[in-house]
Amino acid sequence: MLESSERSGCEGCGSAQVPGLAQWHRRCPSCGLETAAFTAHIDERDGPDIDEDQRELALRPIREANFDTLLAWLKAQTGAGGGAGAQRPRLLDVGCAHGWFLEKAAADFEVFGIEPDPEVARRTMARGLPVRRGYFPDALAADERFDVIVFNDVLEHIPDVTSALRHCRERLRPNGVVVVNAPDRRGALYRIAGTMARLGMPGPFDRLWQKGLPSPHLYYFDTASLAAVAGRAGLRVTASRRLPTLLASGLYERIMCSGDVSRAKAMALTVGILPLVPALRALPSDITVWLLAEQATS
Ligand SMILES: [Zn+2]
């Protein structure tokens, strides 16, 4: 009984969801959580994926800059990485992909990554990074605990976000934190895409949700909805900050590798979007990083 009412209601606050901007899209009028009824197929790929390489390469400048900002912020928030000689905090990167975040975090943390895609995991391990193939938390040993658990563009792809966060709480050491770096529904691009979808142009909205890709977005959060979901898992939001959405560098590749775009159209889109980049920097960003900690036990 509980299960079926939970399934029809909002995963965060339990309110009734309302139809969204597409047949597959739902939103909660109470906490703001947005969900998509997509099926993820990330583990069904076999062999190297050229598009995946191109996609990652295109996103690298954005990700690298945001990782630096995120790590500096994380260290300031948690006081980690300051003490000389002190034992370094243990950090888990869930869905670590090519290990770019692990490489940067290794200066201040004892890092460890898990990655479900076998080919990506193999290549990252081959570069000497401490990575294990598999899903969170199944890839972990029963007694493995962490001071920091990081989801970089990962949490919004996981089908049951509440249980993923419950597992996080179980896997945290005392005073540990969860870092959620994810798209934000309050972002300017997302709002523009939503307006376009309402006007009968669903393309950008579909793309932001990564509709049709092997691992589409299943959630779009903001602080209220993430706090609602986290609350069900015994966690609370303790801090958040926005990260820059978009850099000009890599934009063309990013559009090209979304699959169904012709070269000419990608070029036209790039030329159309480039002049907007400075304006977009002034608008609400589409990426937020949230810090979650255990709720005080009463
Ligand atoms: Zn809700």
UniProtKB/TrEMBL annotation:
Q: Which domain of life is it from?
A: Bacteria
UniProt KW keywords: Methyltransferase, Transferase
Annotated InterPro entries:
SAM-dependent_MTases_sf
Q: Which CDD domains match?
A: AdoMet_MTases
Reply yes or no: does the keyword Ribosomal protein apply: no
| GO terms of biological process kind | methylation
Q: Name one GO molecular function term.
A: methyltransferase activity
Any Pfam family from its record, for instance, is Methyltransf_23
* UniProt keyword Coiled coil, yes or no: no
Protein's UniProt name: Methyltransferase domain-containing protein
- Gene3D superfamilies with a match to the protein in the record: Vaccinia Virus protein VP39
